């Protein structure tokens, strides 16, 4: 990579003004590859806090392939390393392909360029091959932040097939010391550094927090949707003359966050109701994955759900109502009859007391009665947390459980755990029964 491109990439990911000491500390926490658990052959392990912003989305897409794309009878097994290689490489290829813009036909991989881009002697790196390769574990430990970035090369491919072949050929790189970072850089370079900058709300905000090491929402959204927008709502919004970007289409795998239960944000339909019943779960400091094989949870939205979603775009503060002057806009957006006389008639019917507001409930009952999705009364669920210390006996495994719907009576509630609070932002009356003595940890 050119020196300018290298600096742009580093500034975008790590920030321009971060102190060297802090960056080195955070960088070491991100120094890991994609490593499968010895206890759960399809689950990836995370060693330190921070890289869950990459590992959890990769795990979610890997599960999508195992549960719904693969023809294997048992999604939890990988009989040999070759099977793990295939499922991981296919997952990485899928995410890179998703990040590629509609007007671009090239793909990029970040990998190693031996002995170039640095003042230091080449003998610090392995000398067995002229091909780009991962430094040995010892050399990797010795490599600092600057030296590591000086040795990165960008490889460009003009077809997806060529990209896939290269991903499979470099499987050892994805497994080894810098695999997670090199994959993240591959996604960014394929997307285009300028394209990522243009989608981030604050271009000065790095993708990795230089103090705490967390991945930003822009980084998470980039890996989940291919778009590095900073918000989780549907579509774009205007705020004080600024255009704030959101999620424009239904995601393949979703996102739910504990922050919504605390009313810090509201996740839109496109992330909350993905094409596959798999959700990355965000807590204050960590990302995990909740998933199920129940495909009925990922059916297309009903007319009533669409109406609720459109109505809520005109109610960004989630008040449960809109000003009556907005009723015509909502009706037009839903392709309902919207000539002025009919709209005025509906205003009178939906706001008989003349308060100047239209409530969501009466609106849906008037235009979309009985239009609700049919969620099963109960179904099997699983939870994944890649941190060893967050798992029983420090073994990364999936925790199994059951979700039960419809218990509106508070006397029937089983617990008040963080994961339940998070899931209630999608299913308000869900109850969870886990196969373990303690509920899954979101941290």
Automatic annotation (TrEMBL):
GO CC field: nucleus
Known catalytic reactions: Thiol-dependent hydrolysis of ester, thioester, amide, peptide and isopeptide bonds formed by the C-terminal Gly of ubiquitin (a 76-residue protein attached to proteins as an intracellular targeting signal)
UniProt-recorded name of the protein: Ubiquitin carboxyl-terminal hydrolase MINDY
One of the Pfam families matching this protein, by short name: MINDY-3_4_CD
Keywords linked to the UniProt accession: Apoptosis, Hydrolase, Nucleus, Protease, Thiol protease, Ubl conjugation pathway
KW Phosphoprotein (keyword) present: no
Chain ranges passing through the membrane: none
Similarity-based family: Belongs to the MINDY deubiquitinase family. FAM188 subfamily.
Gene this chain is encoded by: MINDY3
Protein's organism: Leptobrachium leishanense
Signal peptide positions (record): none
Matching SMART domains: DUF4205
Main location class: nucleus
Coiled coil ranges: none
Ribonucleoprotein as UniProt keyword: no
Organismal lineage: Eukaryota, Metazoa, Chordata, Craniata, Vertebrata
GO biological process: apoptotic process; protein K48-linked deubiquitination; proteolysis
The enzyme's E.C. designation: 3.4.19.12
GO MF term set: cysteine-type deubiquitinase activity; K48-linked deubiquitinase activity
Compartments where found: Nucleus
Domain Deubiquitinating enzyme MINDY-3/4 conserved stretches: 10-351
Summary of the function given for this chain in its UniProt record: Hydrolase that can remove 'Lys-48'-linked conjugated ubiquitin from proteins.
InterPro entries, per database record: EF-hand-dom_pair, MINDY-3/4_CD, MINY3/4
């Amino acid at each position: 990579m050119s020196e300018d491109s290298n600096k742009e990439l580093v500034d975008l990911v790590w920030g321009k003004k971060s102190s060297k000491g802090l960056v080195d500390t955070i960088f070491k926490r991100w120094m890991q590859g994609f490593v499968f658990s010895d206890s759960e052959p399809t689950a990836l392990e995370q060693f330190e806090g921070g890289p869950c912003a990459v590992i959890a989305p990769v795990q979610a897409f890997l599960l999508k392939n195992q549960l719904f794309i693969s023809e294997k009878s048992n999604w939890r097994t990988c009989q040999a390393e070759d099977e793990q290689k295939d499922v991981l490489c296919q997952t990485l290829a899928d995410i890179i392909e998703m990040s590629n813009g509609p007007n671009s036909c090239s793909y990029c991989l970040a990998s190693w360029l031996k002995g170039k881009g640095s003042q230091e002697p080449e003998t610090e790196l392995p000398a067995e091959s002229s091909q780009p390769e991962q430094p040995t574990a010892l050399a990797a430990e010795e490599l600092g932040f600057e030296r590591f970035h000086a040795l990165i090369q960008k490889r460009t491919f003009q077809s997806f097939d060529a990209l896939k072949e290269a991903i499979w050929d470099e499987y050892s790189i994805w497994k080894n010391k810098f695999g997670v970072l090199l994959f993240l850089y591959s996604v960014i370079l394929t997307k285009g550094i300028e394209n990522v900058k243009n989608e981030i709300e604050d271009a000065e905000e790095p993708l990795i927090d230089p103090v705490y090491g967390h991945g930003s929402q822009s980084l998470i959204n980039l890996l989940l949707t291919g778009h590095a927008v900073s918000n989780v709502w549907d579509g774009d919004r205007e705020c004080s003359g600024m255009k704030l970007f959101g999620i424009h289409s239904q995601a393949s795998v979703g996102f739910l966050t504990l922050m919504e239960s605390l009313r810090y944000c509201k996740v839109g339909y496109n992330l909350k109701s993905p094409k596959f019943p798999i959700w990355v779960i965000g807590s204050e400091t960590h990302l995990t994955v909740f998933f199920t094989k129940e495909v009925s949870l990922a059916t297309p939205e009903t007319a009533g759900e669409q109406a609720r979603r459109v109505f809520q775009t005109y109610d960004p503060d989630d008040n449960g109502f809109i000003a009556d002057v907005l009723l015509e806009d909502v009706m037009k957006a839903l392709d309902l009859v919207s000539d002025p006389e009919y709209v005025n008639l509906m205003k009178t019917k939906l706001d008989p007391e003349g308060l100047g507001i239209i409530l969501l409930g009466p609106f849906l009952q008037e235009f979309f009665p009985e239009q609700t999705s049919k969620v099963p009364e109960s179904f099997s669920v699983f939870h994944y947390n890649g941190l060893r210390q967050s798992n029983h006996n420090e073994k990364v495994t999936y925790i199994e459980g059951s979700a039960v719907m419809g218990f509106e009576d508070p006397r029937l509630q089983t617990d008040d755990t963080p994961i339940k609070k998070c899931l209630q932002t999608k299913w308000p009356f869900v109850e969870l029964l886990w196969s373990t003595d303690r509920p899954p940890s979101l941290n």
